[in-house]
UniProtKB/TrEMBL annotation:
It comes from the Bacteria. GO terms for biological process: DNA metabolic process. InterPro entries: Ribonucl_H, RNaseH-like_sf, RNaseH_sf, Rv2179c-like. Pfam families: Rv2179c-like. This is 3'-5' exoribonuclease. Residues 11-177 form the Exonuclease domain. The lineage of its organism: Bacteria, Pseudomonadati, Bacteroidota, Cytophagia, Cytophagales. It comes from Xanthocytophaga agilis. One of its GO terms (molecular function) is nucleic acid binding.
Amino acid sequence: MNITLNAEAMTYIMVDIESDGPIPGDYSMISFGAVVVDELLNKTFYGQLRPISDKFIPEALTVSGHTRQETLTFPEAKQVMTDFSHWIKENTTDRAIFISDNNGFDWMFICWYFHHFLGNNPFGFSSQNLGSLYKGLEKDTFKNFKHLRKTTHTHHPVDDAKGNAEALLTMKKNMGLKIKF
């Protein structure tokens, strides 16, 4: 019996977030960046969000490069998530796939914010982890993909998402990863 699977068309969107604490709800997503993974990497989104909680961890916030006072001037989270949802729809003609360097962290915030503020998540209920993908390609759980980035990791989420997208493109081009963009 021959079974032919038609690969569903997918748009991979690399995402990176910065927060002021370890979990959404109690703490806040401060900013995030996204890039459509294709050869150009020129479709990007950047969102800054006003804190949704009075709680924050100063050391975590410092990573974002923003002060608490600055973050209090950022746009409301609901508007930013609405804008991001529209951007995803405008840049996706098929299924949007969420992928990130640390999807356990990044996905947790994006998924929670979409459901909390908009009642749904345009990515659905699944995410992909770039680090695990690389480990699988290398067949070694101790390997790290970060040397494949071209864009410097600055903790500006668009830079970081772009560098991670560059790594994914390198996995496709140089390591034989079967993936459609």
